[in-house]
Amino acid sequence: MSDVMTVNCPTCNKPVVWNEQSPFRPFCSKRCQLIDLGEWAAEEKRIPSSSDLSDSDGWSEDQQ
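^ thats the sequence. predicted structure below, dont judge the formating
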C-alpha cells in the first residue's frame, strides 16, 4: 500500500504530505505552526463551550 496521504495546511491551505519527512504536519512549515500557536495564545481561536462560566466561577480552593 503506497498511497500518499496529503492534508491541507490549516494556516495557508498548502498541501502537505503526511509522513515522517514532514516534521511540522499538519502544517507546511514552522512559520505556519507558530502563526497557529499565536492565534490560540491570543484567544483568536477557541474550542466552543455551552457553559457561560468563567475560570473562577463555580469552584474555589477554599471550599471544603
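The chain has one helix and two strands.
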